[in-house]
Specification:
The protein is built from eleven helices and no strands. It is mainly alpha-helical.
């Protein structure tokens, strides 16, 4: 599959990029460097313009500054998750990526990863900029995600890009939940909140837990089949598997918390009072897009 955003660099720029990315071990990034930059500034532009459009929501203007910034971040997250899923889905049918699950490279696969890398570069920048509000943990998460995704440009695991990006199927509902719980009561109708909550639990369980563990199992099998390949130093699968397995178990933990929150909410309704906090609303710093 072709990359619709491919361009030809001037010879001097092409030579400089090739030399640099060959040196750092990411030769496939040469053809997609402009797309990483484009993605970064797309998300940064959305973030900077966010207050202009979000302020049209009257209740947005009543929020504390930290919550407004978090609101703007969630708007960017909402755009990103919808965009990356739309980009990633066609890659499932890329015949080049089907030929080799570990080392295949395709121009379209590079485009998908470029937008993922651009987003996590932006996420890292934002997390570091507002580290006093969101904490070091979120910055570490952004940096780790950036490092894992950028390794695809060795090239390595481009086939698995769309596989693991399907985790984002639950993110739209997670963001809607965040908006509903941080805006004044009744800003989002309760009926919509209930429907969104059901879809959140269902999509989170299927996309992040069932699909997540199944995909890691297939990945382990692919690593096993090509364990002695000289193109795959031992540290590479170790980093990838440690990151993904840790994330899968973290998702199980978060899902158990979400189920507990839902049970408490139902019980509170029965008692005609709500004195139990929502687990996703207990910490102002819990940005939905961080659960990736």
């Amino acid at each position: 599959m072709l990359d619709p955003l491919a361009i030809e660099y001037p010879p001097v720029v092409q030579e400089a990029l090739e030399s640099f990315f060959e040196f750092v071990g990411l030769p496939a990034l040469v053809s997609h460097f402009h797309e990483v930059i484009l993605a970064f500034w797309l998300y940064q532009g959305l973030f900077l313009l966010g207050p202009l459009f979000n302020s049209k929501i009257s209740s947005y203007n009543t929020l504390p500054k930290r919550t407004r910034i978090n609101f703007d971040i969630h708007v960017v997250s909402q755009v990103q998750c919808l965009l990356i899923v739309a980009l990633a889905f066609p890659a499932f049918f890329d015949p080049v990526l089907q030929t080799d699950h570990l080392f295949a490279y395709s121009p379209y696969g590079g485009l998908v990863y470029a937008f993922a890398v651009g987003y996590f570069a932006w996420d890292t920048y934002i997390s570091l900029k507002y580290i006093k509000w969101f904490g070091a943990g979120f910055a570490v998460h952004g940096i780790a995600s950036l490092c894992v995704f950028i390794l695809s440009f060795r090239p390595f695991l481009m086939y698995y890009g769309p596989v693991f990006l399907m985790f984002e199927l639950s993110t739209p509902f997670l963001n809607v939940h965040w908006f509903a719980t941080h805006l004044p009561p009744n800003t989002v109708p309760e009926k919509i909140q209930v429907i969104n909550g059901i879809l959140l639990l269902l999509s989170f369980f299927l996309a992040r837990i069932v699909w997540g563990f199944l995909s890691v199992g297939v990945l382990i099998y692919d690593f096993y089949k090509q364990f002695n390949d000289v193109r795959m130093p031992l540290w590479l699968p170790s980093v990838i598997l440690t990151s993904n397995v840790s994330l899968d178990f973290l998702n199980v933990y978060w899902f158990s918390k979400m189920i507990g929150a839902a049970q408490r909410r139902l019980q509170a309704k029965k008692n005609q009072k709500s004195d139990q906090p929502d687990i996703l609303n207990e910490d102002e710093n819990a940005k939905g897009h961080k659960m990736e």
